[in-house]
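Researcher: Sequence recovery benchmark, item below. Answer with residues only.
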């Protein structure tokens, strides 16, 4: 279990602790998000993936982050309202976190180590970097912020 994401637990936007082992046997797409980013419309594509594959054991886990251009300045409540009102999101949105630096969430340290970026870089470069996790809790792929959710559909379908 140590090489999986299941060892981590993080608070949802409402403050309720969410152990990731509750997602065992599901395929996950873990994304660091922001409300005021050029990629913010990807929320629509993420929701579409969630609706298409959720009944087959798939979920999107969104982790708002304000480390890139101060593009997620809102409170957790404001973020939840924004996502709900603008994109009708129904997948879990967690409490705002750091994904880089000394205060980076341990989950993100794990993700970055398991699936480094270009040329082996570990740092998250921008909002909407995505990590695909298989049913065993192992990170199988990292996608750039520019990769649209619909372009990941085939990879998700293959894991399901």
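Model:
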């Amino acid at each position: 279990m140590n090489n999986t994401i299941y060892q981590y637990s993080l608070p949802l936007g409402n403050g309720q602790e969410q152990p990731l082992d509750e997602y065992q046997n599901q395929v996950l797409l873990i994304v660091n998000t922001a409300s005021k980013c050029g990629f913010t419309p990807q929320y629509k594509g993420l929701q579409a993936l969630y609706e298409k594959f959720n009944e087959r054991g798939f979920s999107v886990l969104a982790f708002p982050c304000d480390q890139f251009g101060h593009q997620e300045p809102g409170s957790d409540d404001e973020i939840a309202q924004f996502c709900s009102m603008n994109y009708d999101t129904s997948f879990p949105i967690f409490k705002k976190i750091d994904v880089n630096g000394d205060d980076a969430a341990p989950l993100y340290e794990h993700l970055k180590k398991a699936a480094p970026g270009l040329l082996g870089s570990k740092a998250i470069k921008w909002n909407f970097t995505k990590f695909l996790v298989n049913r065993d809790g192992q990170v199988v792929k990292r996608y750039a912020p520019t990769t649209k959710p619909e372009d990941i559909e085939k990879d998700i379908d293959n894991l399901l």
